[in-house]
TrEMBL record:
Cadherin domain residues: 1-95, 95-211
InterPro entries in the record: Cadherin, Cadherin-like_dom, Cadherin-like_sf, Cadherin_CS
Name assigned to this protein: Neural-cadherin
GO cellular component, one term: catenin complex
A GO term for molecular function: beta-catenin binding
Native organism taxonomy: Eukaryota, Metazoa, Ecdysozoa, Arthropoda, Hexapoda
Organism: Culex pipiens (House mosquito)
Database matches in Pfam families: Cadherin
Length: 233
């Protein structure tokens, strides 16, 4: 899929026995079989790559090649060119899903979540798992001292994210942990995904006495059971 624009794929040659084999032959690609115009064909029947290919968008093309003579009426011959796009490792891995872990405040240090990764490349070509995880070394000091990311070799490779202390939701409600993920392709691709950990609330703050003056109005003539105000705590 990383072949350069202009690369020659194949050449076609049609023969017309009319006019002693000297008929002018015009070659075309049926654009219904190449709607994105990824390929072109020359007057001599040479097929080349016209636009960059992406296996993750289209992995196989069945191009109908037309050869039209200059007779009246013109006659057409057809052939099918099958192009299979071979994968290269050009996609960085990302989280396998959108993780939304919640860690209750005041909890002791513990495992928060196990995370896995995926990417769009063809694992049959060796592009993809197993994945390797680590905390981004550029993470700020608070994140690096509050959490740890450990590699697990389960499945296609996973990461275990744990807390290193307890947290107070009233101080901070969310923490964003940047995690670097590396695949096993050649050359390997690396991506960074962010895990957002939400600190869950527990009822750890006692109510404080307080007072507030609230002014409400009641108008003469209203029913005696009409609500004149409401107080919330």
């Amino acid at each position: 899929e990383d072949d350069k624009i202009g690369k020659v794929l194949v050449s076609f040659r049609a023969i017309d026995i009319d006019k002693a084999g000297k008929s002018k032959i015009t070659y075309m690609i049926n654009r219904a079989t190449d709607r994105k115009r990824q390929f072109s064909i020359s007057d001599e029947g040479t097929v080349t790559i016209q636009r960059e290919l992406d296996r993750e968008s289209i992995s196989k093309y069945n191009l109908e090649i037309l050869a039209v003579d200059d007779g009246v009426p013109p006659r057409t011959a057809t052939a099918t060119l099958t192009v299979e796009v071979k994968d290269v490792n050009d996609n960085a891995p990302v989280f396998a899903e959108e993780y939304k872990p919640i860690l209750l405040e005041n909890s002791p240090p513990s495992k928060i979540i196990e995370i896995s990764a995926t990417d769009q490349d063809d694992r049959k070509m060796g592009n993809g798992p197993p994945f390797q995880f680590r905390m981004d070394p550029e993470a700020d000091d608070l994140i690096r001292t509050s959490f740890k990311v450990e590699q697990s070799n389960k499945g296609d490779g996973m990461a275990i994210v744990s807390s290193l202390g307890s947290f107070d939701r009233e101080y901070r409600k969310q923490y964003e942990i940047p995690i670097v993920i590396k695949d096993s392709g050649n050359p390997p691709q690396t991506g960074t995904s962010t895990l957002t950990v939400t600190i869950g609330d527990v009822n750890d703050n006692i109510m404080q006495p307080g007072s507030k003056e609230v002014i409400v109005y009641n108008y003469q003539g209203q029913a005696p059971d009409t609500a004149i105000g409401r107080v919330f705590v």
